[in-house]
Specification:
Layout lengths: L2 H18 L5 H18 L17 H9 L3 H10 L1 H4 L14 H12 L15 H16 L3 E3 L3 E5 L5 E6 L22 E7 L8 E6 L3 E6 L4 E5 L14 E6 L6 E7 L3 E6 L4 E6 L1 E6 L4 E8 L12 E7 L8 E6 L3 E6 L4 E5 L11 E6 L1 H4 L5 E6 L3 E6 L4 E5 L10 E6 L8 E7 L2 E6 L4 E5 L15 E6 L8 E6 L3 E6 L3 E7 L2 H4 L10 E12 L7
Antiparallel strand pairs: 1-2, 2-3, 3-4, 5-6, 6-7, 7-8, 9-10, 10-11, 11-14, 12-13, 15-16, 16-17, 17-18, 19-20, 20-21, 21-22, 23-24, 24-25, 25-26, 27-28, 28-29, 29-30
Helix pairs in contact: 3-6, 4-7, 6-7
C-alpha cells in the first residue's frame, strides 16, 4: 500500500470513528487512544530528538531544582511556556491533590522564602497558578532591584555585578558620594567625582537596591543588609546619633531587609522579608519660617507612623511601625510631609501631615487605609511620592494620583485618589516621583514624565515647557526602559540591557567626562552614559 493510499484509508477510518464516537464504551475509547499513540509514534521524530527542555525532566530532582533556582523570572516563564511537562499547571484540584510541576514548585519555594503565604486558592478571575506566581515573582524582583538613584547633584548606580558606583558633587558638609574624605581637600569646597566610580569600601558587597535624598543615601545588599551614608542630622542614617558618614556604614539593627526608602526631610524606611515596616529620622515635619531661616515645627510627630514624646525631635534608630503589625508591607514611599505604605493584600495606607488621600487636611499620626483606593476594588502593588503629591499603581497597571501639585498627573489639585486619564490606554509597570515631578514606565518599556513646574530638562520635553500630564519621552532609540529614577533636576533611565540614559541638569559630565558640573549645563535629550551597564531585568 502506498503512502497516499494509507493516508486515505486512515482519514476514512477517522471519519467513521468520529461518527460512531457517541456510542463508544470507555474500553473502546481507551483502545482508540492507544492506537492514536501508536500512530503518533510512527509519524513523530524518535525520542532522541525531543525538545531540549523536556530532557530536564530526565535529571535527578535535586539537580533540576538547582538549575531552576538559578533562572530569573522571565526564563522560568519561557520554560513554562515551551514545556508542558515542566509546567503541569491547572487551577484545580488544589495542592497536594494535583501534581505540581517543577516550575511551580520553584516559584512556590521563592514565594515562601520571601515570607509569602501562597496557599492553594487563586485570585478572582485567575486560571493559572504558574501565571499568578510568575507575576508576583517578577513584581517582587522589580521592587527589590533599584539600580538607579538621584539626588540634587549626585547619582548612584548598581552595575551588572552588583557593585556600587557614584558620581556628581557632594554638598558642603554632606558627604553623598560614599568615598572617604580627602584630608588635604578644602573643607569648604564640595567634592566632585566625574564618571560613575566604584565605591571602594563596598566592592566586596553585592548591592541590589539603592535610594537617595538630597541629604543621605541607603544601599541594600543581596544578604538583606542596609548601609547608609551622608548627613546624619535628625538620625536619618539610623546609627543612633546625628553624625555624618562619608562611607557607607551598615545599620546594625536591620537584617533580612527587602525594600528601602530614603525620603526628603531626613527620613528613612526599610521593609523586611516578613513585611515589617521600620522607620527612623525626623519625627516631625520642619520648614523654614521667616527671613531668619530658623526651623519651626509644623504639626506633631507626623511622618514615622508611631507616637513619640512631645520633646522628641527624631528617631535615631530603626523602629517598627506597630500599627501595621497585622499587615504585610511590601513597599513604602515618602513625601515631604507624609508617608505611604502598600501591603501584600493590595491596600494602601498613609500617615503624616498633608497629601494623605483622605479628602481632608487633617494629620494622621498612625497609618490609615486610603478608602478611596479600597473602593476601586483593585489590588495596589506600588506607591511613589513627591513633595506634595502621590501615586499608586494597581496590579493591572492602572495609575492613580492625588495631591496638591499638578505632578499628580491630573493637571490640578486632587484631595482624593483618581485614575490618571492620560494613561488609560497603557499598562504601567514602574512609577517614581520626586519633588514636583513624576514618571511612569509601561509594560512595553515606554517612559512617560510630567511635572508641575517644567522649568528644567528633567522631563526631556524641552526647557520651560510645562507638562502637567504624562507625556512619552522621545529619543530613547527604541530602548525598552526597565528602571528609572526621576529627580528635581535630572533623570536616569535604564533599559533591559543595562544601558543608562541621562537627561537634565548635572548630567553633562555623565555623558561626556570632559564637562564640569554646573547648574546651567544640561542635556535635553536622553543620552546614553558610555561604558556603564547597570543591573537590569529583561522585559517579558
Amino acid at each position: 500500500m502506498t503512502g497516499v493510499t494509507a493516508l486515505t484509508a486512515l482519514r476514512a477510518a477517522a471519519r467513521e470513528c468520529q461518527l460512531a464516537a457517541p456510542s463508544f464504551t470507555d474500553e473502546q475509547a481507551a483502545q482508540g487512544l492507544a492506537i492514536t499513540d501508536e500512530l503518533r509514534a510512527v509519524f513523530l521524530p524518535p525520542a532522541s530528538s525531543t525538545h531540549a527542555a523536556s530532557r530536564l525532566l530526565q535529571l535527578p530532582a535535586e539537580l533540576l531544582s538547582a538549575i531552576l533556582s538559578r533562572l530569573d523570572t522571565c526564563d522560568l516563564a519561557r520554560l513554562a511556556a515551551t514545556c508542558r511537562s515542566l509546567c503541569r499547571d491547572a487551577p484545580t484540584p488544589t495542592p497536594p491533590t494535583r501534581q505540581i510541576g517543577p516550575v511551580e514548585t520553584e516559584l512556590r519555594r521563592r514565594a515562601e522564602a520571601r515570607g509569602l503565604d501562597v496557599g492553594s486558592s487563586l485570585p478572582e478571575g485567575a486560571t493559572s497558578c504558574v501565571a499568578c506566581l510568575l507575576k508576583r515573582d517578577r513584581r517582587d524582583a522589580q521592587m527589590r532591584q533599584a539600580p538607579l538613584a538621584v539626588g540634587h547633584e549626585h547619582s548612584i548606580f548598581v552595575d551588572k555585578e552588583g557593585r556600587l558606583l557614584t558620581c556628581g558633587r557632594d554638598g558642603v558638609g554632606t558627604p553623598l558620594l560614599g568615598h572617604a574624605e580627602d584630608p588635604d581637600a578644602d573643607p569648604d569646597a564640595p567634592r566632585e567625582i566625574g564618571p560613575p566610580t566604584l565605591v571602594p569600601s563596598m566592592q566586596a558587597k553585592r548591592i541590589v537596591s539603592i535610594s537617595s535624598s538630597n541629604d543621605h543615601c541607603l544601599a541594600l545588599s543581596a544578604e538583606g543588609e542596609v548601609y547608609s551614608w551622608g548627613s546624619g542630622y535628625f538620625g536619618a542614617l539610623g546609627h543612633g546619633d546625628e553624625g555624618a558618614r562619608a562611607v557607607p556604614s551598615r545599620i546594625a539593627t536591620l537584617s533580612h531587609i527587602k525594600c528601602i526608602a530614603a525620603g526628603p526631610n531626613r527620613t528613612s524606611a526599610a521593609v523586611d522579608e516578613i513585611g515589617r515596616l521600620f522607620t527612623w529620622g525626623t519625627a516631625r515635619f520642619y520648614e523654614l519660617q521667616g527671613d531668619d531661616g530658623e526651623l519651626d515645627t509644623v504639626g506633631g510627630p507626623v511622618v514615622l507612623g508611631y507616637e513619640l514624646d512631645a520633646e522628641t525631635e527624631y528617631q535615631a534608630t530603626p523602629k517598627r511601625v506597630d500599627a501595621l503589625s497585622q499587615d504585610r508591607v511590601v513597599g513604602v514611599a515618602f513625601g515631604l510631609t507624609f508617608t505611604l505604605a502598600v501591603t501584600d493584600a493590595g491596600a494602601v495606607f498613609s500617615f503624616g501631615f498633608t497629601g494623605l488621600g483622605h479628602g481632608s487636611l487633617e494629620s494622621e499620626i498612625l497609618p490609615r487605609r486610603i478608602e478611596a483606593l479600597t473602593q476601586t476594588r483593585r489590588r495596589f502593588v506600588a506607591v511613589a511620592a513627591g513633595d506634595h503629591h502621590a501615586l499608586a499603581l494597581t496590579e493591572e497597571g492602572e495609575l492613580y494620583g492625588w495631591g496638591d501639585a499638578c505632578a499628580n498627573g491630573h493637571g490640578g489639585e486632587e484631595r482624593t485618589p483618581r485614575r490618571v486619564a492620560a494613561l488609560l490606554g497603557e499598562r504601567v509597570r514602574i512609577i517614581d516621583a520626586r519633588l514636583d515631578a513624576s514618571c511612569a514606565v509601561t509594560e512595553k518599556g515606554e517612559l512617560f514624565t510630567w511635572s508641575s513646574s517644567g522649568t528644567c530638562y528633567n522631563l526631556s520635553h524641552g526647557v520651560d515647557t510645562p507638562q502637567d500630564t504624562p507625556k512619552r519621552v522621545e529619543g530613547l532609540g527604541g530602548a525598552r526602559v526597565t528602571a528609572v529614577a526621576i529627580g528635581g533636576y535630572h533623570t536616569l533611565a535604564a533599559d533591559e540591557d543595562g544601558v543608562v540614559w541621562g537627561f537634565g541638569e548635572f548630567t553633562a559630565r555623565l555623558v561626556d567626562p570632559s564637562h564640569g558640573y554646573g547648574v546651567n549645563i544640561s542635556v535635553e535629550a536622553p543620552t546614553p552614559i558610555p561604558t556603564l551597564r547597570v543591573l537590569a531585568l529583561k522585559l517579558p
